[in-house]
Design a protein that fits this description.
There is one protein chain. The protein has 6 helices and 14 strands. The termini are far apart. It has 311 residues and is an alpha/beta fold. The chain has helices at 9-30, 68-76, 97-105, 149-160, 197-202, 222-230, and strands spanning 37-46, 53-58, 84-87, 113-115, 162-164, 168-174, 177-183, 212-216, 235-238, 247-248, 252-253, 267-273, 276-282, 301-309. Helix content is 22%, strand content 24%. The strands form 3 sheets. Strands 1-14-2-3-4-5 form a 6-stranded mixed β-sheet. The chain is globular and about 75 Å long.
Length: 311
């Protein structure tokens, strides 16, 4: 005779949790991180009477040379026919990542663009305990693996025709729209020099009344966002957060890796400083560290943001 005993409820619950965790890992590692998507949005930011401006916002590719699916998807974005490309950094994810970036961005050559650096345009990734990511903003690695930033910058400026906004300002005319743009290098590493921007802006010369001002940063720290609005930005673009990367369905980002409110860790929102409120677009990015190959409830993305005239 055999006796049958019902499984303890705690063991059943533990098994269910384990099965759910395994399913989530399979989804996040094997499926969602390849579900590249274009998020489309519209914001009023241009000077009154301006024609619409289609801005392709790319961020956080963290490119490794073998990531061909991501490279093919980025290359396909040229079909969107943007007027302007804004790249908010962390392009490289491997010492040979520039090879993948070349393959990904080649079709974008000739489209006006600007870029700023994230830390992973200068320093290569290193293995880290992923649990520490949820304890607060990440720290710099003790051993620095420097990347060939000069080669990447030369490719962006000389071959693609983009303009560096690393603690700098520039004046462009895009699709008939006069633009003043300024930006800072990675604020997460304290490479931002907001104090340099007033002089860089002044050096551009007098600004016409129909000029739109755009601010570009990798890490959207509040001090940078506030500084940009004070300097006259009509819209601000940031990256860095990965949108939380591993999010809770129905809640959103659990971390932002900077001091921006979690509800603004990705997507289009607004930022208020003093008596001014401007659109803020934070890209969830299209990549991840090669040491943390997962996305959950946070698809890799680029943004096609159509800027329209205010009023």
């Amino acid at each position: 005779m055999t006796s049958r005993h019902a499984a303890h409820p705690a063991l059943i619950a533990l098994g269910a949790v384990g099965a759910a965790g395994a399913a989530a890992a399979v989804w996040g590692i094997g499926i969602e991180r390849y579900l590249f998507t274009v998020r489309e949005a519209t914001a009023s930011a241009l000077a009154p009477g301006s024609a619409p401006l289609r801005v392709l916002h790319i961020s956080d590719a963290h490119m490794a040379p073998w990531q061909h699916r991501k490279q093919d998807w980025l290359a396909s974005l040229a079909q969107l026919k943007p007027d302007l490309i804004i790249n908010t950094g962390d392009n490289l994810g491997h010492r040979d990542g520039l090879a993948g970036i070349r393959r990904a961005f080649e079709p974008l050559a000739g489209i006006p663009g600007v870029f700023v650096h994230g830390s992973n345009d200068v320093i290569g990734p290193s293995p880290r305990n992923p649990i520490r990511y949820f304890a607060g903003p990440s720290q710099r690695p003790r051993e620095l693996n420097f990347l060939d930033t000069d080669a990447m910058d030369a490719y962006f400026t000389d071959e693609l025709g983009w303009t560096s906004l690393n603690n700098a300002a520039a004046r462009l005319t895009v699709a008939g729209n006069p633009l003043d743009l300024f930006g800072v290098s990675d604020a997460h590493c304290d490479w931002d020099r907001l104090e340099d921007l007033p002089g860089a802006i002044e050096a551009l010369g007098p600004r016409n009344a129909d000029t739109t001002v755009l601010g570009v940063t990798h890490a959207p720290y509040q001090r940078v966002l506030n500084g940009f609005v004070d300097l006259g930005a009509d819209a601000v673009f940031g990256g860095h957060t990965h949108g939380g990367q591993v999010c809770l369905p129905g809640f959103g980002a659990l971390v932002a890796n900077c001091d921006i409110p979690l509800k603004q860790a990705k997507g289009l929102s607004t930022w208020t400083q003093g008596d001014r409120t401007v659109p803020l677009n934070v890209s969830a990015g299209c990549g991840h560290s090669i040491y943390a190959p997962v996305r959950f409830a946070c698809r890799p993305e680029a943004t096609l943001l159509t800027l329209t005239a205010r009023g």
